[in-house]
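Worked example

This section walks through a single chain of length 1304. The input is the sequence exactly as stored; nothing has been trimmed or padded.
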Amino acid sequence: MSSSPRSQQPQPPDSPTHDSDSDLDLDIQELDPISTEPTRGASQQQQRHSGGGEQGTSRIALRKLRMGGLRRNKRGRGYGDLGQNRDEWGEDTEGLLGEGSRSRYSDGEGHGDDDSPLLGEHAGRRSLTSDRGSRRGSRVRLPSFMSGSKKGDEEDGDDQEEADPSASRLVAVGSTQATRFPANIISNAKYTAFTFLPITLWNEFSFFFNMYFLLVALSQAIPALRIGYLSTYIAPLAFVLLITMGKEAFDDIGRRKRDTEANSEEYRVLHFDEPSFSGTARPRRQLKSDSQRKKSRGQKAQRHDLTDIREEEEGGDAQSSSQVCEISKKSKDLKVGDVLKLSKGQRVPADVVILQCSNVVESGEVIPAKEYAEEEALLALDESGSASAKGKQTEVESLKNEEQSGTVGETFIRTDQLDGETDWKLRLASAISQNLPLEEFVRLRVTGGKPDKKVNEFLGALELLPSRQDAMDQQSSLQRDDGKSAPLSIDNTAWANTIIASQATTLAVIIYTGPHTRSALSTSPSRSKTGLLEYEINSLTKILCALTLALSVILVALEGFENTEGNRWYVKIMRFLVLFSTIVPISLRVNLDMGKSAFSWFIQRDPGIPGAVVRTSTIPEDLGRIEYLLSDKTGTLTQNEMDMKKIHVGTVSYANEAMEEVTSYVRQGFYIQPTTDPSSQTALITPSSTFTAAANQGATRTRREIGSRVRDVVLALALCHNVTPTTDFEDGQEVTSYQASSPDEIAIVRWTESVGLRLASRDRTSMTLESTENGRPVVRVRILDVFPFTSDGKRMGIVVHFHTDTNIRNPDLSTGEIWFYQKGADTVMSNIVVANDWLDEETANMAREGLRTLVVGRKKLSLSQYQEFASRHQEASLAITGREAGMQRVVSHYLESDLELLGVTGVEDKLQRDVKPSLELLRNAGIKIWMLTGDKVETARCVAVSSKLVARGQYIYTVAKLKRKDNAQDHLDFLRSKTDACLLIDGESLALFLTHFRKEFISIAVTLPTVVASRCSPTQKAEVALLIKEFTKKRVCCIGDGGNDVSMIQAADVGVGIVGKEGRQASLAADFSIEQFCHLVKLLVWHGRNSYKRSAKLAQFVIHRGLIIAVCQTMYSIALKFEPEGLYKDWLLVGYATVYTAFPVLSLVLDKDVDENLANLYPELYKELTSGRSLSYRTFFIWVLVSIYQGGMIQGLSQIFTEVDGPKMVAVSYTVLVLNELLMVAIEITTWHPVMIVSILGTFLFYLGSMPFLGRYFDLEFIITWGFLWRVLAIASISLVPPYLGKVISRTMKPPSYRKVQST
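Given that input, the structure is written out below as tokens.
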């Protein structure tokens, strides 16, 4: 037929339009960078409509141009024939092959902008209009992917000591780089050796009371102000600083150790040595095409680059550009240009460009992936629907050869640690490098843009240059006559912290390392966190300092401001300030820091939270003050493991044990009765097959109808997907696993296998299903078109052609059935399927159960219908403007109408253990929970419902794809009027609100019980956390498990990381690391409560301890006619704050007001903590009054009962002071612990034992008399009884909540 490319008359060999191998010809439209992903049907239609008179315009799949594909056909035709008489444009088409060979299974990310030249105005760009015209005439010369200007070349050629982060980079693969790039080191440390002292000292002295004590200590250097020993004031301050700085150093050393573990992870790297030759090394010989390229530009080269392939192969090992060996390197030693060898489950340690992918068996042999019949799907259709006998024979031979051709270069990666999306992403190796021998990798050079935080964008190019030296030459231009280039996009990359999900071995070159990686640029630097209690105590110490100053001035004023010889009034004020410095207790920080260390130890040793790690031990009390919890979804609330729970076929629903009935239907529906007819042994099932009629003879009509429905929906689910089966070896056994971009699809395919229909094999053009009962292939289809799932379309479709016999491998389209299958969200599918009365009700029921629903439908197509669709779809794919919309209109018109509704599936995203009760308990504790995820809106909604984050019956208000500011105001107005609703918002809408309605949005959002944000970038998550903190001034806790959660975790007041399956980045950067979300409940409700309550009580006691001694000093000074003389000096002052009271006060860290069961049973108790009543101005001033009373009584009565000044008074006063503090601790204890008893009794006995050594301060003869004893007991009783009675009366009249709970 004249229209068939295969039936054209051969041209003379010297004809410029001669095509020596039509399989290797190109369609210029296939190389259009804007239409890089035409549908398969579109490509087929393009084949049919090529005019017969248009010589030299036959077309094939671009994959045929891959190097491996060129080597495969050695039969009847040499390499010379393959390369003969090419137009000179052939070289330049190589530059676009990376886009042209892009897989049909794209993850849906756009490429329009990515395909634009990297170097802007100087880069050549092809006119689409001229391209379309060129299809009717002679061929045109296609420019390479990019070209460089002189300016750019000069800049690239400059040798740079350090990499410029704002400039693009040239990376020579496998060679040393001319530019120095940063090391590939992960660092979560807060300090370096140089910054530790300045930063920690600044943090310490930014607190008022530390600065206050520094000034007091410095004042002792002035002789007129010195009171007692200088060490009395210097030593406590130094001790506090050493304790605090030591703790910071300990925490940071722990972070560095964990970073070292990650940086020491071993990776396999290909090492390229210079090739060794026997004798003298000889250079790479010149290829024939090399000399031809030196001819005048006006002359056309008569040979093609493909001829070079043969010449290089014939040259053997002598032509190798390098020698390759495999070495092991630590992650921190990896450098830009290194070629990594990655396998399934490995974390990608840096940003890489994928060069080659291949399937590997256990022995290490590389197995090329099967690609049979790919071009057959593009060439099978011509205008008559048939091909010539010669053409068909050529196709079949081509298929056989193609099974042995090069690999496809595909791998899947998981990016949930980077962007939170659970769908696997398909990544492709460039056509230039996919089948290139490893020894020639050193001739490759990658051009990449500047380091960027945009994880979904990349522009670059891959060049194959004549030699290794050329690849290392930074002055080379990007467009050369002796090289080949191809564009690189996001499809050719894998960013750091993604996980290789495919069985394929992936070879990739590093282009960005360390701080230049996408994940590092998206992560905010670590910061020092300070607890809310610290700020509250800082405010209280300012009040105490003001009290000290006021007291000093008052005492001097009472005496008068007259200056006498050697006694200036301002000096007296300064001396009083030093004497009263105990009011602001220096030991407060020591006690609090030791308490925090104890709380951290309790958390890490709690058997109820196995694996818990405290990485920031300065903020455990903040765990008891959380009011907003921001949680990630994937890996935090969910396991990211899908499970098919329910299927509804219209009249009956199957779930749980009822699935066994589905299995019996499938067994009957796909059973082929063996007969004497040989064809029954090779027969295959189609939707219209009648093989199973005999199996259902005894069944009722209703049962036969249900069986038919079940068979149809199971077949549809087994075919309508993008899943590929892979085989792996574990413990010597062969294990089949599935790869797909969506875990939903894997769950469905696993379910079809469990009911009897297994996906045996899948490639780009075919799919085979087999029975699990006997392993026999029962269904085989040719894939004609695939329409991938997109967030806009919310549906996925596939057009397949059913085979009828296993012996007929590539049947003509006219001999079998063509069906269109589609599955998608009920919101879009309800308008596509035929009218029915059950779909809406059933999808609503499944949605209420938190299941992710998919509606499945099908439509049978005749050959003429499919041909018409393919023709129109191809035309739409060539449009310059509105291409995507036009293609969708064609699909909607020809395919997406009146589909037969087959059924509805319900897939559950498995939740983490005890997520539901945990969320409910936290909500009852008064914590408002937000879920921030990078996943899809529908997925976020389902998980919010299934996890009970959204209460049953609660209204979910959805805001998605918001682009206009006026519409945003309407949403805000609605939310103001419905504050009990759950807000579900996507990242695009959230960005608009945060840009234009920042204050209005957050003021409404924080009042809502629940907010769910989907499609959130890591930066947006952190911004939301900071915004809530800034607006509400409340404590915010963020929890996540992925690298995309690090920014949010670090921005929060309390960051909690979950040790996920995919990595430890979140847990390394977090303040607290746990293994399960449910452990967060105990961390907050129990440990948070105890840490805060104990810290508050500890702080109050330390303040009380300092105030009471200051009041005693005041009374003493008044008695001495306002002279600033010290009452307790030297050891008495130091000993009182340390050995005589420290341990009993510190033992308060073991106190608890309720037990753990009550704390969990009554989470409302946690709500009280957020108000901060345990340490408030009210409680503070109560303690001030108690201190004034007790100090006044102790010192006043001591002076009355003994003497105004002297060792007897000091002995009585000091002994009562110590005894009073010990008994006050005992009064305040709620739950006794053995350590408390030992510390109180032990301290008292230690004090008694030390009294004989205090003869310098005490009258030792007096202390062994009864007079001393009765005075001490009398004064202590007067000091202690009234405060104790006041406490008892207060608790009786108005008992605290925990007392009420304990009494029930």
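What to look for: Residues 1079-1119 form the longest helix (41 residues).
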